[in-house]
User: Which sequence fits this backbone?
């Protein structure tokens, strides 16, 4: 079930909120139990046969955490066994077909099964591994209450696409949280803004991206650039829109979630970009892979190997395809280059040039990420560099510029921290005694959220439903 579906917006979500708040606030366990039941229902909506994968991960993680405290001599073996049992479904469902297809390419004749990937398996598996690692390292105590740990794993606002949450941050809130009207209101407003990002911007720009990536011999230089920029914006508004909705729902239920985006397209380097994009994933790989491998406190050669390993895993985490592996290694090369080769020269460039440098490289990276094969990625990038089969420009490119003119006009500034700048300006005016600024700060976001909710509902009713892009991961 997607947040942008009519079933969720006008069926599941109102029922979940109503049942949650009908339970007295003093009965924390009751409210948490209601959230757990609705979270499992939310996941099972996509098919009951997918639910066992989630329940298996919950059970293995809970039991593994408890066993880590039984005997110190066997802690490492317990940790490795629990981690392996969590990774087993992920590897089986996500990578079996990829492995067999590559073996067949080498001359074998193996049957490739059609396995349905459980939604969100990459996200809840990483949460399970972070919990087990933190218990193993002694950072947090094990959770003996199975429903509480299961809610951490299955909390429906962030179950399918994150952000990736640590139990040390989430667990204490389950026992001691207080929902308030201002937080509920702010959460609802953020949810509406996230819904609008997805429905009004991402889905529309996706049409231009799809046209470019499927153009074939009609591909022109202009259409290639238009499509790649459209996908760059589509992916941001799709994923950050989901995150806004997740964080908004977390606020409604008194369970704040970590930020996952910080205006990544204002970055001035690939390194800065990854401090702003999918923040919780970057932190997960840093804390649970990069640092345990030795981080940068080692020889240069070992550091390079650590970076290559982390970014290859990052690419394959996103998908079982060579395009994702190449995308991960692409960023490894950029980050290594910025650290050891051209980073100093880059810092001396004017800010606009550094920004342009980052945007161009990010854009090429998303072409590799979006392409169905390495060959298609090569064709798109070649077309962007001038070797397009259809020439420089076409009526098709002009059509997608005109057809989605207002989406382009809104998307470009919306990817910048315009909201932050306006808020600071209005706050300064309010402190100077401006009543108009105070009124805009107090009621402006709420009124705009209602307008966006109405527009999003109309768009949903009049167009074909589109799932979130990160559901496939």
Assistant:
């Amino acid at each position: 079930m997607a947040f942008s579906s009519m079933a969720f917006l006008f069926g599941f979500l109102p029922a979940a909120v109503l049942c949650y708040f009908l339970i007295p606030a003093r009965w924390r366990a009751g409210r948490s139990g209601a959230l757990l039941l609705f979270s499992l229902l939310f996941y099972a909506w996509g098919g009951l046969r997918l639910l066992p994968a989630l329940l298996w991960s919950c059970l293995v993680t809970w039991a593994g955490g408890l066993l880590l405290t039984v005997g110190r001599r066997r802690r490492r073996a317990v940790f490795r066994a629990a981690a392996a049992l969590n990774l087993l479904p992920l590897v089986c469902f996500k990578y079996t077909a990829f492995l067999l297809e590559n073996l067949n390419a080498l001359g074998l004749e193996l049957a490739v099964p059609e396995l349905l990937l459980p939604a969100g398996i990459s996200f809840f598996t990483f949460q399970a591994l972070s919990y087990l690692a933190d218990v193993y390292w002694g950072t947090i105590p094990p959770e003996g209450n199975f429903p509480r740990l299961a809610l951490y794993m299955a909390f429906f606002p962030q179950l399918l696409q994150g952000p990736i949450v640590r139990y040390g941050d989430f667990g204490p809130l389950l026992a001691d949280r207080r929902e308030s009207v201002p937080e509920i209101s702010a959460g609802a407003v953020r949810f509406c803004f996230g819904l609008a990002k997805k429905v009004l911007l991402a889905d529309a720009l996706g049409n231009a991206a799809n046209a470019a990536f499927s153009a074939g011999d009609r591909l022109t230089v202009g259409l290639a650039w238009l499509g790649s920029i459209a996908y760059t914006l589509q992916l941001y508004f799709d994923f950050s829109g989901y995150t806004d909705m997740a964080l908004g729902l977390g606020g409604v239920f008194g369970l704040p979630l970590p930020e996952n985006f910080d205006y990544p397209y204002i970055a001035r380097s690939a390194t800065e970009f990854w401090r702003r994009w999918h923040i919780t994933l970057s932190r997960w790989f840093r804390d649970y892979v990069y640092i345990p491998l030795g981080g940068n406190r080692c020889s240069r050669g070992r550091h390079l190997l650590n970076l290559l390993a982390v970014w290859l895993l990052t690419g394959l985490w996103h998908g079982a395809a060579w395009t994702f592996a190449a995308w991960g290694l692409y960023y490894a090369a950029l980050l290594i280059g910025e650290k050891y080769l051209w980073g100093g020269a880059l810092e001396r460039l004017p800010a606009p040039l550094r920004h342009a440098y980052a945007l161009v490289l990010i854009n090429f990276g998303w072409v590799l990420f979006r392409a169905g094969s390495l060959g298609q990625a090569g064709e798109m990038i070649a077309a962007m560099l001038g070797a397009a089969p259809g020439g420089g420009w076409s009526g098709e490119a002009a059509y997608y510029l005109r057809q989605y003119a207002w989406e382009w006009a809104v998307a470009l500034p919306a990817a910048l921290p315009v909201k932050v700048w306006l808020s600071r300006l209005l706050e300064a005016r309010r402190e100077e005694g401006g009543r108009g600024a105070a009124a805009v700060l107090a009621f402006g976001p709420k009124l705009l959220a209602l307008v966006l909710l109405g527009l999003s509902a109309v768009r949903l009713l009049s167009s074909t439903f589109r799932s979130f892009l990160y559901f496939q991961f």
About this structure: The two ends are 15 Å apart (CA to CA).
